[in-house]
Amino acid sequence: LGNGFIILINCINLVKRQKLSLADCILTGLAISRISQLWVILCDSFLLVLWPHLYAIDKLTKVVNIFWILSNHLATWFATCLSVFYFFKVANFSHGCFTWLRWRIRSVVLVLLLGSLSLLFLNSESIYTFNHISTNSYKIYARNSTWSSDVSETLYLHHLIAFNFINLIPFLLSLTSLLLLSLSLMRHIRNLQLNPSSKDLSTEAHKRAMKMVMFFLFLFIIHVSSILLTDWVFLKLQGHLVRLLVVLTSTVFPSKPF
Q: Which of 10-14, 133-137, 202-206 has the lowest mean pLDDT?
């Protein structure tokens, strides 16, 4: 509901003012990608409950994974861009590079989004690897057979390395934004102590921005951990009930449908 409300309000503002601020554009993109992600999970849940045998079809699992890749990738990077945006808008540094980037924040956000597309291919390869594992696991489970655990764990290790590398970049960008916001706040408080007569206009803005970034990092860690944990559980405990449990978990912390 919250994501839909954001989209509705921003659409109304767009009609009235004929333009949107950069922050509203990022929030709208984030809301759309999150709603898309939840719809993918919902459709995946229906397929799992009503037609679980369809998971043995490679083409179907590829389509589901493609939609999940796009929605999850965009949601992560829109949230990262929002963290970077708040950093440049709230923090105060006298360095020339910071000032130059601050005046070009639209270009910075655009470069981040376009640059993230280069990671989309690697992300696709990672999901394709696990898609191969899950499809074969279901086929073998349906035949009451067994598959070599060494093969599945080796493929999972490759998936794990690629997935962690992909998510390390947005995590580090947001973490850097948080640390620099903290540094900017400490310098601001020190200046207030040295000049008691100066007005305190940005302390609260610093705190709000830091809370937002910290909240995103906390949820991001939970999100990534839930993906890795559910993937591993699925490999170790293959079966229809396990798959259903994984999907239900993903509705709480949206992660990859299988």
A: 133-137
